[in-house]
């Protein structure tokens, strides 16, 4: 909070309308957080049934943070389910938080860009895909910036503001201003695989999962990491992030000859993705 205050206020106009595409773990929680902080948010998902649980999580967040019924209601009113994606044409900022797959993201961008209003910014919450890999799909790659939130959104202060070789300074500044607007700490970084945090975090998680393959129980590894001072152990964190997402990020960042953790592969193949599917390295129900 002190570091955020030290950054000062931005002179740029605030984002009034945010459109979020993907109502999963990240998109749903980014939408909820932005609405908590006063932004009108439309929330879209290819699978409409993903929207209601996201709105339910938002209500839990508002109940915890706002307490007063009229404030909770106002935040709920600002968070609008939008199956048809009509918010795209009205939004000042669009954040995609769909599946971590460059081809799928490109397809989405090609549909979204022509509907965006002039001056609106397009952001990707990708964890690992360099923005340059998404340029093909866009007529104007200059409007693309990375806004990489961390999980769980309500607790993690940091947002990486990712600059591609085509991102102009005013778009970087707008990304930073938006993070500050919603009380998050912007960390500008260049668009390279894994940006800053995941470049360091992914090998750490991978090594921990290789230790599981070697027969060390997840509980032992997590307890050691917590004794060391980590708020959460690496195996628990992998389950929280989602093993499907972790898998996709690992593939994107893998160096030639990298060893894939066997247990991770078996869990992903069995659609046991961690907390969100009730089971991963741990049981969550
Ligand atoms: P998730 O699987 O929980 O949610 C993805 C959502 O996107 C699903 O609801 C799915 O139905 C929807 N979707 C897929 N294709 C779509 C399309 N074409 N149009 C609209 N909706 C579509 O995944 P997540 O964990 O929220 O991750 C989303 C993105 O955020 C990924 O790029 C991921 O790398 C990134 N990210 C994830 C984490 C994490 O800890 N899970 C952290 C930071 C960033």
Q: In the CATH classification, which architecture of the largest domain applies?
A: 3-Layer(aba) Sandwich
At the fourth CATH level, what is the homologous superfamily of the largest domain? NAD(P)-binding Rossmann-like Domain
Poorly predicted tracts of residues: none
Strand portion:
5-15%
Instruction: State the order of secondary-structure elements, H for helix, E for strand.
Output: HEHEHHEEHEEEHEHHHHH
Number of helices: 11
What is the CA–CA distance across the termini? 34 Å
Instruction: Tell me the name of the CATH class of the largest domain.
Output: Alpha Beta
Strand-pairing-aware structural class: alpha/beta
Q: Biggest sheet: strands, sense, closure? A: 8 strands, mixed
Approximately how much helix is present in the residues? 40-55%
Shape: globular
The CATH topology of the largest domain is given as: Rossmann fold
Number of strands: 8
Radius of gyration: 19 Å
Q: Average pLDDT across residues?
A: 95
Number of domains: 2
**Strand arrangement in the largest pleated sheet:** 3-2-1-4-5-6-7-8
Family: In the central section; belongs to the 3-hydroxyacyl-CoA dehydrogenase family.
Protein name: enoyl-CoA hydratase
């Amino acid at each position: 909070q002190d570091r955020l205050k030290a950054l000062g206020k931005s002179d740029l106009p605030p984002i009034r309308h945010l459109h979020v595409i993907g109502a999963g773990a990240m998109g749903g929680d980014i939408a909820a957080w932005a609405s908590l902080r006063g932004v009108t948010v439309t929330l879209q998902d290819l699978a409409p049934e993903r929207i209601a649980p996201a709105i339910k999580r938002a209500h839990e967040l508002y109940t915890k943070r706002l307490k007063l019924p009229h404030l909770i209601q106002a935040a709920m009113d600002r968070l609008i389910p939008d199956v048809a994606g009509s918010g795209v044409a009205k939004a000042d900022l669009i954040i995609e938080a769909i599946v971590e797959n460059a081809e799928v993201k490109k397809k989405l961008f090609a549909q979204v860009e022509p509907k965006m209003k002039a001056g609106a910014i397009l952001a990707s919450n990708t964890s690992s895909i360099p923005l340059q890999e998404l340029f093909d799909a866009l007529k104007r790659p200059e409007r693309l910036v990375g806004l990489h939130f961390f999980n769980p959104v309500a607790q993690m202060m940091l947002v990486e503001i990712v600059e591609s070789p085509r991102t102009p300074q005013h778009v970087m500044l707008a990304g930073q201003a938006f993070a500050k607007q919603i009380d998050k700490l912007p960390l500008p970084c260049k668009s390279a695989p894994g940006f800053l945090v995941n470049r360091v975090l992914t090998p750490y998680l991978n090594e921990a999962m290789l230790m599981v393959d070697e027969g060390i129980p997840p509980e032992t590894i997590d307890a050691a990491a917590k004794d060391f001072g980590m708020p959460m152990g690496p195996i628990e964190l992998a389950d929280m992030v989602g093993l499907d997402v972790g898998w996709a990020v690992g593939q994107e960042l893998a160096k030639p000859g990298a060893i894939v953790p066997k247990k991770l592969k078996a869990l992903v193949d069995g659609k046991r993705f961690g907390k969100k599917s009730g089971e991963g390295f741990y049981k969550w129900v």
